[in-house]
Amino acid sequence: RLSGWIYVDISGRDLGRYRTGPPEVNNQPSRTTVDLIGNCYVANRYSGTLVKVGLSELGQGIDRNGDGILQTSHDLNGDGDITGDELLAWGADECVLWETSLIPSAEGNFVPGTFTGPYQNSWGYPGVRGVAVDTQGNVWVGTLDTRKFYYLDGGSGRILRTIDVSSVNHRTYGAVLDRSGILWASSHDRNEVLRLDPATGAFTVIPLGHFSYGISVVRE
User: Fold this and answer.
1) 123 phi and psi, to 5 degrees?
2) Pairing mode, strands 49-53 and 96-101
3) Main-chain phi, psi angles of 148, to 5 degrees
4) Which of 7, 9, 18, 163 is deepest in the core (most CB within 10 A)?
């Protein structure tokens, strides 16, 4: 069972290690994206949630216990691995800022450790996959079997908007925003990409004729 996310330097030494859900849950953190100040958004593909991890070097945490110290994982003994007591329990790391459930009938944003579930244990349902951050620091998240895009407030994790793309049977596998703010999403074995204009909510499918896994923007 995979339930954590690791932040390392170029030499491979741990700079941070974070739980992205309860350790007894099959979270399987998969897709990630990073915003303009280094915060990371992690999609748990099996449990059906998205988690935001703040960049501790820039103080991107919440002092929930009010002790004036940002409680987060550290390599205390300098061995390059964050293990044992150096890895904080789910809900205790103050750099894990929020958790948003995209599970139908349980959608919502939560302080880590307060969502009581039930979590999913499914590769495809809802199948949290493509994640992309816009210039405002908000997040687009696409799902596989529930065929939806969610627009989340980057600060709180609150769901601001939901777009149902089931009318074109699109199943998101990867996502990216281009310089014009258009959202593009790959589709795995659907052999297509989807183009979504956030300004209008209009979307269309473009056939590729081949498998479509990841997706990125190439700048000339």
Assistant:
1) -65, -30
2) antiparallel
3) -135, 155
4) 18
The set of long-range contacts for 60-66, using a CB threshold of 8 Å and a minimum separation of 24, is: 60/95, 60/97, 61/94, 61/95, 61/97, 62/94, 62/97, 63/94, 64/94, 64/111, 65/94
Contact indicator for 184, 178 with CB cutoff of 8 Å? yes
- List Cβ neighbours of 13 (8 Å cut-off, separation of 6 or more): 75, 80
Cβ within 8 Å of residue 141, ≥6 positions away: 43, 50, 102, 128, 130, 131, 149, 150, 152, 175
Q: What is the pLDDT of residues 131-160, one digit of tens each?
A: 999 999 999 999 999 999 999 999 999 999
CA angle 146, 201, 154 (to 5 degrees): 75
State the residue for tokens 């809802």: 126
Q: How many CA atoms lie within 13 A of 124 on its CB side?
A: 7
